[in-house]
């Protein structure tokens, strides 16, 4: 059986470009890497990785992990900030339960941060999963790096659904959620939202490889071997901006095929006559000569 060591984990992280003071958003599947030398149980296994990551980042660094709770919507259950576990894997759940960790408040798409900037990223956020004051937006603002351990390279492109929301791609809409988080034993009165795909397009698979290829070709993904797998890392902003540029020419970049939009049906619903209290062909000439500045003032 092949073992990795904590020193080996630190070396791989450093080789992939991680360093002191960074904010790192991590996607992990540690089982694919192999056992850690001296780690005899699950907590020790996760502690070895957390310790190695924080050793590389130093006391001024911050680790962020996804602690999504999609089971809340699937099974119509409460989201209790302090208690609801994440199905995102062993390591995110371990980080979520560490003393000092800060979990953002969102019933489906919370992140958890651990380290110097934990509160800055995951406290006092807005109610939109990917909006301007979401944890994803703050990762972009603070120059975070994406870290991938034991998963495919394309995870290095980071928050792709944040990218979809920011680019206002037409196969998505902002869904009003019925679940209001329970925090400190009290149910919040705020209403929460998430950018999701229209149900009729859910059968179209995602394909993130084209964006990953573009980022890789630009030298944006660094990698290092670790155990039976690899470590990948990328600059969150670089990946985000690469995606924005490519989505200008190909709005279906993140999908396996274009959505089968039907003209006349949302979101491809055609002319607005009848929707904005202006109707009839004769109105077109009148509106074309209207003083718009005076109209609005």
What does this structure look like?
- The protein is 31% helix and 18% strand.
- The protein is of the alpha/beta class and 297 residues long.
- Strand 5 and strand 6 (111-115) form a beta hairpin.
- It has one domain (3-296).
Task: Write a short abstract of this structure.
The chain has 297 residues and is an alpha/beta fold.
What is the total tally of β strands? 13
Helical coverage, percent range: 25-40%
Across the major sheet, the strand order is 5-6-4-2-7-13-12
**Uncertain regions: pLDDT < 50 for 5+ in a row?**
293-297
The average pLDDT is: 93
State which percent range the strand residues make up.
Answer: 15-25%
Overall geometry comes to globular
Number of domains: 1
Distance between the termini: 75 Å
* Structure class: alpha/beta
What order do the SSEs take from the amino end to the carboxyl end, as H and E? Answer: EHEEHEHHEEHHEHEEEEHEEHHH
Number of H- or I-type helical stretches: 11
Quick one: biggest sheet? 7 strands, mixed
Radius of gyration: 22 Å
List descriptors:
single chain; 297 residues; alpha/beta; two-stranded parallel ribbon; 31% helix; globular
Question: Helices, strands, pairings?
Answer:
Blueprint: E1 3-4, H1 6-15, E2 23-28, E3 35-36, H2 42-57, E4 62-66, H3 71-75, H4 90-96, E5 102-103, E6 111-115, H5 118-122, H6 135-141, E7 145-149, H7 160-167, E8 172-176, E9 182-183, E10 186-187, E11 193-197, H8 209-217, E12 221-226, E13 229-235, H9 236-249, H10 282-288, H11 292-296
Parallel strand pairs: 1-3, 2-4, 2-7
Antiparallel strand pairs: 4-6, 5-6, 7-13, 8-11, 9-10, 12-13
Helix pairs in contact: 1-2, 2-4, 8-9
């Amino acid at each position: 059986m092949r073992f990795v060591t904590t020193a080996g984990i630190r070396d791989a992280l450093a080789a992939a470009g991680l360093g002191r003071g960074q904010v790192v958003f991590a996607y992990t599947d540690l089982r694919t890497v192999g056992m850690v030398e001296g780690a005899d149980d699950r907590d020790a296994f996760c502690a070895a990785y957390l310790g190695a990551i924080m050793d590389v980042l130093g006391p001024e660094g911050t680790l962020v992990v996804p602690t999504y709770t999609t089971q809340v919507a699937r099974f119509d259950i409460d989201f209790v900030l302090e208690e609801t576990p994440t199905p995102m894997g062993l390591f995110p759940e371990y980080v979520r339960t560490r003393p000092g960790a800060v979990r953002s408040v969102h019933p489906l798409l919370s992140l958890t941060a651990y380290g110097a900037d934990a509160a800055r990223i995951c406290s006092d956020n807005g109610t939109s999963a990917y909006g301007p004051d979401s944890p994803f937006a703050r990762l972009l603002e603070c120059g975070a790096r994406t870290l991938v351990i034991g998963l495919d390279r394309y995870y290095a492109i980071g928050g792709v659904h944040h990218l979809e929301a920011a680019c206002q791609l037409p196969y998505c809409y902002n869904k009003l959620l019925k679940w209001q988080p329970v925090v400190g034993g009290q149910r919040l009165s705020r209403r929460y939202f998430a950018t999701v795909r229209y149900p009729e397009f859910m059968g179209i698979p995602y394909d993130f490889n084209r964006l990953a290829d573009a980022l890789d070709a630009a030298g944006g993904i660094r990698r290092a071997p670790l155990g039976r797998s690899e470590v990948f890392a990328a600059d969150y902003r670089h990946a985000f901006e690469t995606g924005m540029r490519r989505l200008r020419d190909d709005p279906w970049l993140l999908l396996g095929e274009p959505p089968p939009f039907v003209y006349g049906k949302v979101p491809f619903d055609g002319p607005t006559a009848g929707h904005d209290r202006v109707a009839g062909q004769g109105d077109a000439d009148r509106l074309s000569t209207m003083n718009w500045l005076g109209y609005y003032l």
